[in-house]
Amino acid sequence: MTSQPLQNKVIVITGASGGFGAALCSALYQRGAKLALLDIDDTALALQLKNFPDPTRAKTWHANVCDVNSLRLAMDAAADYFGAIDIVIANAGIDLIEPLTATGEDSFEQVIDINLNGVWRTFRAALPHVKASSGYLLAISSMAAFVHSPLQASYTASKAGVWALCNSIRVELRQYGVDVGTLHPTFFKTPLLDNISNNAAGTSLWGAHKKFPFTAVSIEDVVNAAINAIENRKEIVTVPRVNKMIAYAPGLFRKFVERIGFKENNVRQAVAFAEQARRHKDD
């Protein structure tokens, strides 16, 4: 497929003011895109907008990915403001590091509702507009869609669900000229990774993300991969690119990573740390 330039393309992104969202928005703006910045944090959005001085090329809207009506209002307003919506990036997401023994129902369901249901709501709200433009939908998933870490049942389930969701709707939407893709980065430097690095359970599992198979990549690598996915309307992009073989044979590589990456003693220690942290949180 011929690469499409992003100049004057209208791009909607949820979770726009977060670490990765903000970095991606800056890169897209530099390439001439028009940005509809959606987030639940109005203060962060207001600060972010100062980086984009041209009001004809960037505007913010409050939107909650747990509320489809909120998303519909934002999508409709963005389409009215810019005249169309060409690309939608479902980026909003959260993480949770807790074992089954310590995870509450509310915590588990919150991750699923934001990370998985939020993608569905985002795409559903955007659908009339991307159908009209024969546009492109991109969901930010994770390598966790293929390799399922202990203490991350909610997160890995949500990211695997995003992958499956996009594979399903891709076939449905072809008739409208709409393409659907997923981006699957490994660990990279964001506030989300900082939370993991500062978590005793996470450190027990993944160390400092400096050794295979949990080596971190730069946020620039992930931003560039996302732009490549958008420009070429890719179905699936992994970061680093070599991880694509894991996406094609997840069952095989999952067992390999489990064997070399998740030693029994490390998992036991991580569970103990997480259970202790949960007890302190509940006290």
What does this structure look like?
It is built from eleven helices and seven strands. It is an alpha/beta fold. The protein has one domain: Rossmann fold, CATH 3.40.50. A seven-stranded parallel β-sheet has the order 3-2-1-4-5-6-7, sandwiched between helices. Helix 1 packs across helix 8, helix 3 packs parallel to helix 4 and helix 4 packs parallel to helix 5. The chain is globular and about 55 Å long. It starts with 9 loop residues before the first strand and ends with a helix. The model has no long low-confidence stretch (mean pLDDT 89).
CATH class: Alpha Beta
Fraction in beta strands:
5-15%
> What's the domain count?
1
Strand order of the largest sheet: 3-2-1-4-5-6-7
By secondary-structure content and strand pairing, the structural class works out as alpha/beta
CATH superfamily: NAD(P)-binding Rossmann-like Domain
CATH fold naming: Rossmann fold
| Count of separate DSSP helical elements | 11
- Write down the overall geometry: globular
- Give the N-to-C terminal Cα separation: 56 Å
- The helix/strand order is EHEHEHEHEHEHHHEHHH
What integer value in Å does the Rg equal? 19 Å
Helical content class: 40-55%
Corresponding CATH architecture: 3-Layer(aba) Sandwich
Show unreliable segments. none
Biggest β-sheet, characterized?
Answer: 7 strands, parallel
Number of strands: 7
Write down the overall mean pLDDT.
89
Family: Belongs to the short-chain dehydrogenases/reductases (SDR) family.
Pfam family, one: adh_short
Keywords: Oxidoreductase
Organism: Zhongshania aliphaticivorans
